[in-house]
Amino acid sequence: MRTPPFLLGAGLLFWSVQSGYWILAGLLAFILESARRLERRWEFAPKDFYRVGDLSTVLFASTVVYLVMTLGVIQAWALVLCWLPISLFPVIAAQELSVQGRLDLGALFWSLRGKPSAARSIDVSYPYFALCIISSGAANRRTPVYFAGMYVLCAWALWRFRPAGRSAWRWAAVVAAAGILGAGIAGGLSSLQVTLERSAINAVFGGGEVSMDPYQTRTAMGQIGKIQQSGDIALRVRAQGKPPALLRAASYNHYSNAQWFAREPGFRPVSTVQDGTGSWWELSPDASVEQAVLVTAAWPKGIGMLALPLNASRVGLLAGALVRNKLGAVKASEAPSAVTYIVGTAPGASRDAAPDAFDLEVPPADAATLKPLVKELKLGGMRPAQAVAAVSRFFADNFRYTIFQNEASAEPLKNFLFKTRAGHCEYFATSTVLLLRAAGLPARYATGYSVQEYSRLEKEYVVRQRHAHAWTLVWIDGAWRDLDTTPMSWPEIEQSRASSLEPLSDIAGWALLRFSLWRQELALSGGGGPMAWLLLTILIGWMVWKAAALARASRRAAKRGEEPPAARGTDSEFYRIEDHLGRAELGRKRWEAPAAWVERIAEGLGETKSARLRSLAALHSRYRFDPRGLSAAERASLKAGVSDWLALDGDRIRG
């Protein structure tokens, strides 16, 4: 059974609300609903359906390859699911434009190709509608709108399947109860997940709150090493003068089992201030701006962690909300997918809270490991600046940078400090933080990016995924300072792994970013409306031009005394059956294909008349729409068959 009128269009428009692709979804919905109302349809051979299926396969594969290459595997799969209605649109469009009103299964499964298709077809309208709902869930903005929209659309789709003979009000009451129960269960599961996570964390780490949010407050040794394998551009940076060397996204203050956590990381809203230059998010009150840094990033979901220099004082960013925690992490939400933000910096500005007991914490096992080293370097009796200098010299003189450890170890810190003395930035940053803490200096583990590569193409600095970095924050003379003990050779070592195709990828990425920013500027300036009106004007102009061309052709034919040619197949005897059944209130709807109409009324006709009517509908569709038409014998068969069928249904005629 096909979906009710407008349901497919409503599903696509609901998907557009969640994904943001409203112009594209609106166009596709218009195409589908228009196809249902076309008087002319096409007779598709199985091979035609196969080509459509292959086209959808190519679209799907291209989408997967592009998203994986540009976003990475984890983020890509969510967007792949989100884009499935686009990839599979040719399949549903082919069904709606076909005389058959059903899809040959060979279009979906290669193993069924070449086999008899009469019993191997399927109506994909309901599966496609369900796909739109699922894809909307992958793209949804986590608001009540998604659940409410999904509930209404599903109730609409289920209306045709309500039990016959039962009260419509009773059915509506059951559906309403199911919606209320579903909303309660969804909210309860979400709360249960949060409760279980907090209970597990407190059981492992003891008192105090530890957040396990993987995007903001947790990192592990080895995580950045995996990120650094990619040459994709993560940020673009432009500054007045030399840009800051390090841009920090997050800090961590609790170390356990080779992992860093942010303990007591609660986020609070960032306030805004107004001045002569506009509206700013204020990170450090009363700090003047001495340098501006412009950062461009891609946030596909409109949510992201800001990469900021140590002394950031304020941020200019178009976003619905900005929150921060005491460890200097700043998160934006309800922002564009391609975002540019201005960071004002000032000496002495700080977005980090003063040190507390967590910033001196060293796990007992690691304290025992570090004790001989603290004694060897004589850190206990030094002033903070001297201790920092001694630790920096220790790593610079005795260690080297390497991308990966050659061997796994149950004690990675001990193995790094006393055996291999080689590792990547996470090992250097972790060892430095714990060594300084063991010497009595408050320190934190910081992650973000190193700014080092200038692009002549873009005339700004580009920050790649392989520039992801970890370093140390140390408290000296009443302020937090950046301390990077990773050997200076690490950028060259990472650069040596760059792909030879990287310049081409950079050009493509730059072009896509410019287009995204232009589209957002157009929308913000109110240009989206004029653009939509321009497209509509072009469409209307084309339709008027085609109508005028047909009118001119008709006038020329009239001057020559010619009758306008009748549409092929309009003299089909099958219309006698349509008129006959229409008088019995079994008529065909304007948007129904003959085959679909026959299936709808088949139960009320009986097996014999339904079987003959199916054959006649197939002959009629070929005569009306197939460019090859009917042979003389088939044409005679259609004419005689209609007369025989009407005679068979004589009782209805006499009635």
Task: Tell me what you see in this structure.
The protein is an alpha+beta fold and 655 residues long. The protein folds into four domains: 7-161, no CATH class; 218-360 and 443-517, no CATH class; 526-554; 574-654, no CATH class. It is 49% helix and 16% strand. It has 22 helices and 24 strands. The strands form six sheets. It has an eight-stranded antiparallel sheet with strand order 10-11-14-17-12-5-22-21. Strands 3, 4, 7 and 8 form a four-stranded antiparallel sheet that branches. A four-stranded antiparallel sheet has the order 6-20-23-24. A hairpin with a 2-residue loop joins strand 23 (468-476) and strand 24 (479-483). Helix 3 runs antiparallel to helix 6 and helix 4 (73-82) crosses helix 7. Residues 200-218, 223-227 and 523-529 have low confidence and may be disordered.
